[in-house]
Specification:
296 residues; Thiol Ester Dehydrase, Chain A; eleven-stranded mixed β-sheet; globular; MaoC-like_dom; Acyl dehydratase; HotDog_dom_sf
Length: 296
């Protein structure tokens, strides 16, 4: 495997130049045969959280006020670094063609919103599947040299081009997404401007989330909600059932959530945690399945 390409920033970089490079870039939608992944490690040495930005996130994701950070909030904070990953020479495909397939978040310790953090993003995995290619990248926040929050995002590029794989296999998660007795069910009213509102908070202005017209350019009949908004909204609905730290959250994204629409959020207790499902109003089709477990 080639040597790791390392890039360091004093703080979070600007998103604007990165978006220009994404729009004008010539990367393929799927990596050609023989592609060798170059590991990439990005660092923001000091990240300071904003109370105003945090409140905007709580508002758009319906997260009740609490002393601790919402479990998925730091993903939104890290978006400028994710964009730097996507435009890096070693990242092999165009980000606008990628689908967020799976996500794992580990909250190791309670995070003080007033304390500066160190942020790193690492990428080294291209995996061949029957339907296309998967790419994992890891986001970590540290406080005083200790990892306090970690995320593994799996992105998917559809296609059947044979490609050399780099990195180990990440097993799929197959667990129940069907509610049990004692299920907490909430109806989610998903507004037409949800994509715009979350984009302003996260910096993710992918056209499929903004308007029906721009979503149609990528084959969608309507704008679709960000997967990380759906994840954050379901965690907001389940907030009373979740401990503030010491947890792992595994999420599998299924059907897109169209804007506007309604959906059900269901939360029920299982051994060592809770399961969460976001489904259609009839309850017969899943938008996402989520498993929240206590870390050992």
């Amino acid at each position: 495997m080639p040597a790791t390409a390392k890039i360091s920033f004093a703080g979070l970089p600007s998103m604007v130049p990165a978006y220009v490079r994404v729009l004008l870039g010539k990367k393929p939608y799927i990596a050609p045969a023989g592609t060798t992944v170059t590991p990439i490690e990005l660092e923001a040495r000091t990240v300071k959280l904003s109370e105003r930005h945090l409140q905007q996130y709580r508002d758009v994701c319906g997260v009740p006020a609490a002393a601790h950070l919402p479990p998925a909030y730091l993903h939104a904070v890290a978006m400028p670094m994710h964009m730097q990953l996507f435009i890096a020479q070693g990242f092999p495909v165009k980000v606008l063609g990628l689908i967020h397939l799976r996500n794992t978040i580990r909250v190791f310790r309670a995070i003080d919103a007033k304390a500066p953090l160190r942020l790193t993003v690492h990428f080294d995995t291209l995996r061949l599947t029957d339907a296309g290619q998967e790419y994992d990248f890891t986001t970590r926040y540290e406080r005083d040299g200790q990892v306090v929050w970690e995320e593994i995002s799996t992105m998917f590029a559809r296609g059947n081009t044979p490609t050399k794989t780099e990195g180990g296999k990440r097993p799929s998660i197959e667990r129940s997404a069907h509610p049990q007795e004692g299920t907490d069910t909430q109806t989610l009213e998903i507004r037409e401007n949800t994509g715009w509102r979350y984009a302003r908070v996260s910096g993710d202005f992918n056209p499929i989330h903004l308007t029906a017209r721009t979503a149609a350019m990528f084959g969608f009949k309507q704008a679709v909600a960000h997967g990380m908004w759906s994840l954050g909204r379901c965690l907001g609905a389940a907030a009373v059932h979740l401990p503030p730290d010491g947890i792992q959250i595994d999420t599998q994204f299924k059907l897109p959530v169209y804007l506007p629409s309604q959906a059900l959020s269901r939360t029920w207790a299982v051994d060592n945690g809770v399961d969460i499902a976001m489904c259609t109003m009839r309850g017969d089709r899943l938008h996402l399945a989520m498993q929240v477990r206590k870390l050992k």
